[in-house]
Amino acid sequence: KFTVGIKTGYCLQNMILYARINGLGFDSSYRNKNENRAPVTFLVTVDQYKRMLPGPVFVSGDVKRDTLSGFLQEVKQLVEEMATRIVEDPSIIDSAHHANEVAMLTEATIIVQGSDGWQPLFFMIDKCLPEVGAILLVWPKMTIRLCQFHVIQAILRWQTDSGTSEVKPKLSRPAKYLILWAFRQLQRARNEEAWKREVELFRQRLRKIYYFEKNWFCGEWRDLWADIGLPPGHNRDNISTNNFTERAFKLFDEIFLENRANKSAYRLVLIIANEWFEYFRHWQPDHKKRPGAAYHQMILDGHRLWNSGYAIQDAGHDDQGQRVFKVLAEM
Question: Superkingdom of the source (predicted)?
Fold first, then answer.
């Protein structure tokens, strides 16, 4: 029955500044967070450099539709109250956002003057029906995007909504590629007429259609992964995965839990309240991330130096039995 929501003024201002422009990620993690395996639910966004920033956090053993909608409704109210306060007194803008004070005031004004209050651009989720229901209870017309990575993963595993697998055919690697290609073509349907045409083509391409009819073409999920569910002018080629939320959990597990199983719910709350938000408040990069190709080349250069024998040399073991490497040249 342990249930708690955790927020700071800083994380609410993240929601004001970026959610309308860059959308939100919404996901829960069960593994190694507390003794009761109560999931931790993150609400996150990304900044202008596509770096993840935290929003309010929810810890509860009950993550059903009504409980999650209660959390989201409370967050919506808190964000709108914060926006009103900023419009009345911009000096309350957190120091971490001083470089974006003008944009913050603009976004807060849009929220205050809008008839519907705070309206994020979209919610990015995994395939979780309670999350869908919770979001639509608070924002009935909200655009919900289903993470494309999880769509592909579920198809390759022939996975159902319950997480179990159907009796799947043995598919070669080329056959898997063709399934994903056919599914991608189907995804491009933007209206009912195009949907009917693409579904028929999909049926011709695949003999086994029951799995897709039951798990992907149904009313609960179709508009969340196909372009038909997006507003005019939007497609899934920009932000199409829930990776920024997954990255938040990975960062939390590695840095704040030190890759250990946390056994205390109270310790978990203290870490989130006192350390999680503060980490991002004090670490605000002011530059774009390097392109993926640059990181890839850096890794290749590192492997080349490591294996060359001219930069790093194995120096055996120290007194504690740890391996020691000697750097022979500066990069």
Answer: Eukaryota
